[in-house]
Amino acid sequence: MSLTELTAAELSAKLRSRDVSAPEIARVHLDRIAERDAEIGAFLSVEPELTLAQAENAQRMLDRGEGGRLTGVPVALKDNLSTVGTPTTCASLILEGYRPPFDATAVALLRAAGAVFVGKTNLDEFAMGTSTENSVFGSTRNPWDLTRSPGGSSGGSAAAVCDHMAPLALGSDTGGSIRQPAALCGIVGFKPTYGRVSRYGLVAFASSLDQIGPLGRNVEDAALLAHAISGHDPTDSTSLPDSQIDLSGLKGGALRGLRLAAPRELFGEACHPGVRECVLSAVDRLRAEGAEVAEISLPSIDYGVTTYYIIAPAEASSNLARFDGLRYGPRLEGEGHVGTVAATRGRLFGHEVKARIMIGTYALSAGYYDAYYVRAQQVRARMTAEFEHAFGEFDVIVSPTSPVVAFPLGELSHDPLALKMLDLCTIPANMGGFPAISLPCGLSEGLPVGLQIVGPIRGDERVLQIAYAVERALAG
User: Fold this and answer.
1) Residues 322-342 pLDDT 10s
2) Which of 292, 308, 397, 425 is the right S-S partner for 454, CB 3.0 to 4.6 Å?
3) Is domain 3-229 classified as CATH 3.90.1300.10?
């Protein structure tokens, strides 16, 4: 079996038993990228010399008996995570060539742990999209079918893990951008509780919704990466005062007696029949293993997409104001200060980014703030309260991750509303800050379907434990 086919946990075991070296693992993954990425388009930048230097350092750590379970293990990084000395473009012309002078906290933690970075992955520009078609550097293709989308906005990270170019990757999730591409690529994607992973160094899209999280080929791998990047960070004012996500009970869960809630709003007409059938079949398997499943109603879900696409663009319009061509990145000269800013932003931001900035600015403007933004926040609070009430009666909430399987590239690019509706199932977890994970549960039309598990705030360990038990049950 090729080293690229091994999980992160298996690679870690081989490294610690001295069956293989970190540079050897790095080289085979770099070779895989060189062989496959011209077709897939998962990476925006790969710097083999830096990767091999990190691998040599990781091997020295291992030789000294230092490091942990990710020392020497390759990790791909979404290109909106600040990485010192390495291009961080957010797939946008306005940051083309930008090399940050600092690491994001999650990146710094992985660097200190001896993880080996194999490259920066493609995304929808500034993480705004659900198909990885909004990247100015080209679309990413789904390894299951190169004519189809891997999902977004973390499509590059998902495709890299799916196609064995890296066993692990980091993504960011604002409305489902880790979980939806994980579902469409047939891998695992985990969004931790808001605040469990520092957002410092993540180029902000919507600050009250953004969360960094892991993608891997199974739950154990995703949990290993979540553990490594979590914990309190004083440089992030929204960081929770919690310790790292604890893995000690990961494999100790059972399905018998587990109380699962299935919201009917997430299994309705918006969900493709093949996806619904696949998820319900998986739920039946869990019921056969002793889990108790009940259908519930969470009415505010019907307003989730509308609410999200007021709040997220409003925050984006503020966050992206810093990209004006005056402090960093390219600058296009115009007539005076205003003309220069207008020329830079007008020509270097892509269509989707400009559209969301304008929508957000409008929603925050005088005369419309109360009618749109305030009302959206009220709906958000109602949605959060409904979910929290459900968690008083049930352990977790289960649903499809994406209402559809991977769709043909270009099929929805001229139907922005249809693309945005693909976030129906994933948005609620961001609205309430809840931990949520997607794991494969079968195929529809020969393409992967994802099962989503959502838990209460700070219930990350429990969500991962349940996901591990579910993964084993579905594989049995």
Assistant:
1) 998 888 788 898 888 889 999
2) 397
3) yes
